[in-house]
Amino acid sequence: MSHEQDEQAVREEITTCYRYSAGLGLNELSSGNLSCRFEDGMLISPSGASEANIAPERIVRVSLDGDWEGDVKPSSEWRMHAEIYRQHERARAVVHTHSDHCVALSCHNEPLPGFHYLVGSFGGDDVPCVPYSTFGTETLAQDAASALKERSACLLGSHGMICRAGNLKSAVELAQRLEIMCRQYLLARQYGEPDRLTSEQWDEFFDRARKVSYGRYI
User: Fold this and answer.
1) Catalytic residue among 13, 77, 83, 179
2) Rounded to an integer, what distance in angstroms lies between the CA atom of residue 27 and that of residue 53?
3) Is the pTM of this model over 0.85?
4) Mean pLDDT throughout 112-120?
5) How high is the pLDDT of residue 217?
6) Average pLDDT for 206-210
């Protein structure tokens, strides 16, 4: 496969996954963005992307310093994606969404606690929430990338979520999983604050998960 075909395949994958994530309700209108690491930079969905206008030719090639060419601008959140790729060598794909329940919890600036064993699928006994920063800023990029040091996903205060994975399909699945877990946590909280798994229970979970290669993408 030639370099041009390689790049075209990634552009088509981003387009397909963007539409799929929109179909899941993870992104609505022009919120959220997807990217894949490509050579020494990345390919990312454009500014103003939506399910209706996303297309392979509108995916933008961007360096990790933000250099790009063409008539279509990259997503305003390119800094978050770039910093995650810069700090995490294993990250091959990044997904950022404004999905309903992730946003709802992030607006309380609270982590998703370890109320259910599947919280562990993000790499620990919670999913952290970084403080609010204006979209597209270096502060937000640094906070998000730092939060993903020991986790594959985090909430962004009063904003949404972001995750990293070894491929785009897994990253979209993580974004969907986090939305499900936030929904279930907020539902459980209607009956009072739910119980947390104990340290011993987490140790047992992670021991079991390692043995069966279960649910970890970090």
Assistant:
1) 77
2) 13
3) yes
4) 98
5) 43
6) 91
Alpha carbon distance, N-terminus to C-terminus of the chain: 29
DSSP SS3 for 52:
coil
Please return the burial class of 194, using the count of CB atoms within 10 Å of its CB with bins 0-12, 13-18 and 19+. Answer: middle
CATH superfamily of 3-212: Class II aldolase/adducin N-terminal domain (3.40.225.10)
Q: Are 141 and 80 in contact (CB under 8 A)?
A: yes
Hey, CA dihedral for 6, 12, 15, 19, is it positive or negative? negative
Catalytic, 39? Answer no
Which residues on adjacent β-strands are paired with residue 38? 41
Query: Is residue 48 classed as helix, strand or coil in its secondary structure?
Result: coil
The secondary structure of 127-195 as a DSSP string is B-EEPP--TT-HHHHHHHHHHTSS-SEEEETTTEEEEEESSHHHHHHHHHHHHHHHHHHHHHHBTBPPP
Three-class SS state of 94: strand
Structure tokens at 45: 């969905």
- What is the C-alpha separation between 198 and 83, in angstroms, rounded? 33
